[in-house]
Specification:
By secondary structure, this protein is an alpha/beta fold. It contains 16 helices and 23 strands. Bound molecules: nicotinamide-adenine-dinucleotide (NAD).
Length: about 500
Amino acid sequence: MREIGHFIGGKRVAGTSGRFSDVFNPSTGAVQAKVALASPEELRAAVENAKAAQVKWGATNPQRRARVLMKFLELLHKEYDSLAELLSSEHGKTVPDAKGDIQRGLEVVEFAIGIPHLLKGEYSDNAGTGIDVYSMRQPLGVVAGITPFNFPAMIPLWKLAPALACGNAMILKPSERDPSVPMRIAELFIEAGLPPGVLNVVNGDKVSVDAILDDPDIKAVGFVGSTPIAQYIYSRATATGKRCQCFGGAKNHAVIMPDADLDQAVDGIIGAAYGSAGERCMALSVAVPVGKDTADRLMTKLVARVENLKIGPSTDAAADYGPLVTRDAVNRVSGYIDIGVAEGATLVVDGRGFKLQGYEDGFYVGGTLFDNVTPDMRIYKEEIFGPVLAVVRAEHYEDAVKLVNDHEYGNGVAIFTQSGDAARDFAARIQIGMVGVNVPIPVPIAYYTFGGWKASGFGDLNQHGPDSIRFYTKTKTVTSRWPSTNKDGASFVIPTMA
Ligand code: NAD
């Protein structure tokens, strides 16, 4: 059986803890590799490597650091197809969707290449007589990224690219479910000229995460994953004085107004609800038609589309979506469908027990659609993270706004309408971090920032865009004076700029 170890000091190393986790091929259900789960000692070795390498990397001029990213970008383009295949073989998303995963990560690398500009400080000439004040952004030192299974290229790259460009060294702890792409990314960085030790990949579970949270040499932690773990990591990391940003789960609504172009809305909702088997933090999992007529028209169109979703192995480029990541995920999603039925929602299309011919042991769930879901139901309140769409009917626009605003999660939301007035009002009043107007998955472009509100995000700064530069640097402000030969002598009153 193939073993995946760690990437420490510029090379792959075998795990020494004796603990492993299975890496599946979700399309077939077979175990394809074993990934090592690091011990605290292995994590510590990675931190020592990173700490030593960061000194020189942090002192390297930003343009030279950017050139390493530029070379890495070139290598990423060369390996685009093979990386997408590797990614989809461990995650289960289709190869075209895996390419999207790489593409959205690659765009943040492009953004980070502009780092010499982004790192510029401020300067005030003659702020007081003969006194100049300037600020500079300096790296934090060693930082850590803890990432989820559902975007094994994009999210590591969202963390790596700005962190490294800013002069930090990074410990990446990717998901143990699909570790191969992060490991390959680390190799490509070495090929691109990144000094060994600046980027280390430590595979593992809670043991290695806890070692990260308690390590005094790790100055910042960026996490993406489910909300309970996000809350745990945020409280433990900040308790030890680390800078921390944690992005959690979601329940993203699509509000469909009576004037919406329904065909366009349904196209958008179907892709966003069922693409990647619903395993996206920006997946639309709740549709909120406004008014009975809109709801009835929407349901007619949705049912036909959900019944005809094409499910296939991840290698089938024509499939709408592939398998879920693990058997546990299938059981969790099927369990939620059982709960929805027991709660009294109308199960219109049932995806439980779906079997794909020739892939009977794969981790598939058929497209599932619930109507008449109400806000008190668990299938409405909790994140299911599977190909399940819940329709909650709203009588009026204000009911839809209240529904979204009252929800615990606040990651993404979309409104479908032809009214600029409704769209503007919605964007202004909705309590959600990322809003789409006739755009079903409003993941902001690399030079804006990505982050949810409420239980979807903990910490003050978002991912990528300008916030990533703020997160991965600390500001130093210098007040300087070059006295003329005429010395002033000591002064015992507080200095002012008067
Ligand atoms: P997860 O929370 O199970 O795991 C995320 C990371 O935390 C992994 O690296 C994992 O090894 C680690 N981890 C798991 N359990 C832990 C524990 N008890 N203690 C310490 N570390 C632990 O999440 P997942 O299943 O990999 O990913 C899916 C979740 O991520 C969904 O909830 C999804 O909404 C969320 N997500 C959010 C965003 C966002 O930007 N808000 C983006 C992608 C995914």
